[in-house]
Amino acid sequence: MSQRPLPVELPRFRLASLPTPLHDAPRLARAIGVDRLLVKRDDLTGFAGGGNKVRKLEFLVGDALATGADTLIATGGPQSNAVRTAMVAARVAGLDPIAVLYGAPPPGREGNLLLDVLAGARLVFTGDPDRAATEAVAEELAAELRAAGRRPYVLPRGAATPVGDAGYVEAAAELAAQLEEIDVQPAAVVVANGSGGTQAGLIAGTAWLGASYRITGILVSRPRQEAVPRLLELARSTAGLLQLATEIGPRDIHVEEGVPGAAFGVGSAEGEAALRLALTTEGLILDPVYTAPTLAGLIRLVEHGTFDRTAPVVFVHTGGEPALYARHGEDEGTGAAMPADPTHVPASFMHV
233-285, pLDDT tens digit by residue? Predict the structure, then answer.
């Protein structure tokens, strides 16, 4: 079938190269013990290595320009993929880029932070390690700019808003068309759940399309009790914005633990093994914060029998590769050394 268009046309600033590929991953499938694994390559959206954030920013930057903004403020951490992509997108769209980052300035400029600097973004550090502190600082900064006659547009962490999430309603339609073309009906589509926007858009999109597969989010940032109501509200608000004429309820919300006990952005043995496994089986470069823990979560679900090993599964690769290049042999913020053998994968992750 051809891809179903969104029923409401929102302002848009084109950035992405779409559709992104849907690839079979037979070696990775064999390694984790499923008959078929497909990878939705949203790491290949084609703009500044921004991965899934590019789909969202097309609509968010479009909205910013439509409202007359002259400045784009993005919030997150020093290695935020969303912030870095927003800073580059702001430059391309003719907006002044400002990054509000939690914590203190690190000693070096590496990974995503280096790209923020190269984009000429103004960096504002909160001095507070609490991620939520960025939002208040961003609003204070926006108020100062408005008082000076400027027109700022503020993005929340992860760019998770109904406007941005429209990009993943469209992605759901794109994926459905690709699956129909190859005659595959997956049991589930697995994606990282951080700020929730990507999963919320996919939930709204699959409900609108009447797709039978569930969208399973692997928790990498927020606890379940916070993630579930947030997802439900985001999915419903996105559906309302786009007039999707579909009901979304609690039964549509599926989230699972990734690596139990792991803190956000802190490496784990399971995430490290998943990162290496993707690279050595399929040449996929995962990031340490979102996609590696998500693959580790998928592996756990397969091992625990949550997924039928004979049913196809889609793994959404959301990108974020530049964060990997800020580690230099240590997990960010932990001081934990990387394992010495870069080819070692724990036996429990191998089902060949």
Answer: 999 999 999 999 999 999 999 999 876 655 565 668 899 999 999 999 999 99
pTM for this model (two decimals):
0.91
Name the CATH architecture for the domain at 53-159.
3-Layer(aba) Sandwich (3.40)
Provide the Cα torsion 223, 228, 229, 233; round to 10°: 130
β-strand partners of 155: 74
Beta-strand relationship, 96-101 and 122-125:
parallel
**Alpha-carbon separation of residue 176 from 132, 189, 310 (angstroms):** 35, 11, 20
Q: In 3-state terms, what secondary structure has residue 70?
A: coil
Specify the pLDDT at position 266.
62
Residue type, 285: I
The DSSP output letter for 41 is E
212 is known as an active-site residue = no
22-50+161-349 CATH choice from 3.90.226.10, 3.40.50.1100, 2.60.40.2150, 3.40.47.10: 3.40.50.1100
- Domain 22-50+161-349 shares a fold with domain 53-159: yes
Q: Is the peptide bond before 339 cis (omega within 30 degrees of 0)?
A: no
Domain ranges of the chain: 22-50+161-349, 53-159
Rounded to an integer, what distance in angstroms lies between the CA atom of residue 340 and that of residue 352? Answer: 23
List the catalytic residue out of 2, 80, 195, 212: 80
